[in-house]
Amino acid sequence: MLAFRDGVQRLSRERFDRELSELLRAARSSAAARLALLLRAGELESALEDSGHAAAVRARQLSDDAAQAFHTNSASPLAVWPCSRPLARLGAELPSELHLKRPEGYAYYALQPTTYAQALGPRHAAAGAVAVVGVRSIGTSLSALVLAALRERAVQGERITVRPTGHPWERRLQPKGAFEAFVRRRQSALYLVVDEGPGLSGSTFLAVAEALERCGIARERIELLCSHDPDPARLVAADGRRRWQRYRSIAPPDPPQPAQALELSAGAWRSLVYSSRREWPACNTALERRKYRHPSGILLKFIGLPPYGEAPLARGQRVAAAGFGPELIGQVDGYVAQRWIEGRPLRLPLHDPRHLQRLLDYLVFRSQQCRSEEGSVTPVQDMLRVNVAEALGWELPRSLQLQLERPVYADARLSPHEWIEGADGSILKVDASDHGDDHSLPGPCDSAWDIAGAILEWRLSPARTRELCGEYRRRTRDNVVPRLGAYLLAYAALGLGRAQLALLSAAADERPRLARASQAYAVALRRLATINGWQGRSCASSTCC
Questions:
Q1: What is the pLDDT of residues 289-300, one digit of tens each?
Q2: φ, ψ for residue 188, nearest 5 deg
Q3: Minimal CA–CA distance to 47: which of 107, 19, 7?
Q4: Is the pTM value of this prediction over 0.70?
Q5: CB burial class (10 A; 0-12, 13-18, 19+) of residue 298?
Q6: 195-214 exposure pattern, b = at least 16 Cβ within 10 A, e = fewer
Q7: Do 175 and 130 fall within a single domain?
Q8: In the list 50, 77, 316, 493, which could disulfide-bond 387, CB 3.0-4.6 Å?
Q9: What is the number of structural domains in the chain?
Q10: Final residue before a domain boundary, out of 233, 256, 279
Q11: Would residue 305 count as lying in a domain?
């Protein structure tokens, strides 16, 4: 099942050059700018390494200089880089368009790169020589920072980055070329494999560690530096438990929790807004943003390290200014502070006409005020075909195509429980700034996505659906009806995919809720495909339902 997108951002060389120039200039006096420069330099290095570009060597130097500047809290290592046109130092033959992948941990999962430096201990200081292997993409900047920390301790260190390939649960890394030469010259070093994760499988870390062994490195000299300690028994890679336990793994310390704050991550927020666990909606706890509630009535939610938090913060401010969301008070260390909303979540069935009117007003607002200059239906189209084949065993007809007429940053989370009704009767939308532009589908897409989400999540009757679409068209001049059927199917297919993937790692008490959500999306998917005549011919891919 598919639920995620590649997160690749396409920027012109000139635009990225201007951004790097601004960051280099700001890095002279700003720690936040030095961090942003490190993360953007890591993106560039990853892109050039992936494409085999000759300028990757100079990009690696920029990452190393930015890491040293950030780690030592000094801009002096960046003095060799001009503040105007830094890409000129990387080579005039850089591609006119750069394809940069946003690191998920920095943008979505509150990964603090400084903690990786803090994970280093006496074993590393006494190693004599340490070889750091970063796993692209996020392992690029992380490996640069770990190397800077090692060198500060007078440890002889060098680094390289790699990109394992293959199915996410069966990654492979073939030792050849620069990687094989790097390892051959450093046979006596202690090896640190650096990445976030592991995810569901652990296969990316394992691919690198096993490639090192094939190059002659003893497993006792291979360490996996990951963002958390996994339960090896739950890794879904083939023989994952045994393979993982062959290596030493270490994790950085958790960032300090805000003083007196109550952590509400991983679905814990439900305990504050529902009187009984029986009322809790399903939740993919592993993918939730980290969040805390302070006794002062402030909610701190991770929105992205600089520069990744800027766009969702701006969208959240627009939502708040229009009166649809909570007031945003400020941002620090990747967290946005907003007012905690006292009230009760909406729940089905919804009979109050004010609720539907509020939903309509919000959909009109998103369509008009959250427009996107980019957008693509291709990843959603691919997800639709794969998930329908997996769920129903049907190959959709080629005539079924999603249309992109009004690109927007969708809200993408329109379930009733995402709305809070206060004691004064106000109805506010929470969690409205980032899901339409994170690493999950749909990403920037057509305005029909949120219309479809509203219809399915609020379980609108045909009459209410016609009323909603008619009034939406009158106010926006966007006739969404001709393209809505395909988006309804795609929304149900994605909901099913998310629930199925969440079930793979869910705790026992979460599984029944996810199973019910999965079944509901599966029923909707079959019904929509049948009534529209999109069953297609059977294929041999069905694994659920």
A1: 999 999 999 999
A2: -100, 0
A3: 7
A4: yes
A5: middle
A6: bbbbbbbbbbbbbbbbbbbe
A7: yes
A8: 493
A9: 3
A10: 256
A11: yes
